[in-house]
Write a structure and sequence with these properties.
- This is 4-hydroxybenzoyl-CoA thioesterase.
- This protein is an alpha+beta fold and about 160 residues long.
- The chain has three helices and seven strands.
- The protein has a five-stranded antiparallel β-sheet with strand order 1-4-5-6-3.
- A hairpin with a 3-residue loop joins strand 4 (about 95-105) and strand 5.
- The longest helix is centred in the N-terminal third of the chain and has 19 residues, at about 45-60.
- It is globular, with a radius of gyration of 17 Å.
- The chain binds 4-hydroxybenzoyl coenzyme A (BCA).
- 4-hydroxybenzoyl coenzyme A binds near residues 82, 108, 109, 110 and 134.
Length: about 160
């Protein structure tokens, strides 16, 4: 039996669809012509590309760990093993989305992030990414390196404030 009546209907009815805590890292993303489909709204895969850009900026600006050096010099990759997104309100060219990053879970080699797209205080989309720290030499999962874990734990504590 379908239980559609139990699905959240409005942006403010589900916990993950509320704005993230103010302490979370946020980055602005202008919506450009190239992001939109013929209906004039952002084409859904574009949001996943924006999510990864937000993760890169979160590392470099929010954690103070240079994302490019982590990959190119330390040879630590962060492949995505899970991605999902609820799309609540469409966005259009000329608008600016604010992407916020909440660190929901820190595992041995994986981390789960909630990434919300907000506009005028409203959550327009709410996604989840699971990333795994991986050696780029053999493409196997490796424990999250200590310095990265410390930075993430510090971030998690600050975000909750
Ligand atoms: C990442 C992998 C090498 C890990 O494989 P394994 O070493 O066998 O993984 P394990 O089963 O041991 O799991 C490792 C951890 O991931 C977790 N995991 C693994 N799969 C999942 C899924 N699907 N969901 C949630 N958690 C998961 C698992 O629970 C372990 O967690 P911890 O307890 O915290 O350690 C392998 O799963 C893989 O290669 N997957 C394909 C990844 C891929 O192709 N993704 C899409 C493209 S990558 C990409 O877009 C990208 C973006 C940005 C970048 O910087 C890099 C790449």
């Amino acid at each position: 039996m379908h239980e559609y009546s139990e699905r959240p209907r409005r942006a403010d009815e589900h916990p993950s669809h509320r704005p993230l805590p103010p302490g979370c890292f946020r980055v602005q993303r202008p919506i450009r012509f190239s992001h939109s489909d013929p209906a004039g709204i952002v084409y859904f895969p574009v949001y996943f590309d924006m999510f990864n850009g937000a993760v890169e900026d979160w590392f470099t600006q929010g954690l103070d760990i240079d994302y490019a050096s982590m990959i190119l010099e330390r040879r630590i990759g962060l492949p995505i093993v899970h991605a999902d997104c609820d799309f609540l309100i469409p966005s259009r060219m000329g608008e600016t989305l604010t992407l916020g990053v909440l660190l929901e879970r820190l595992g041995r080699s994986s981390l789960q992030l909630r990434i919300n797209g907000e506009h005028d205080g409203q959550v327009r989309l709410s996604g989840s990414l699971t990333l795994v720290t991986t050696s780029l030499d053999n493409f196997a999962a490796v424990p999250i390196p200590d310095d990265i874990r410390v930075a993430m734990e510090r971030y998690q504590a600050g975000c909750a404030l």
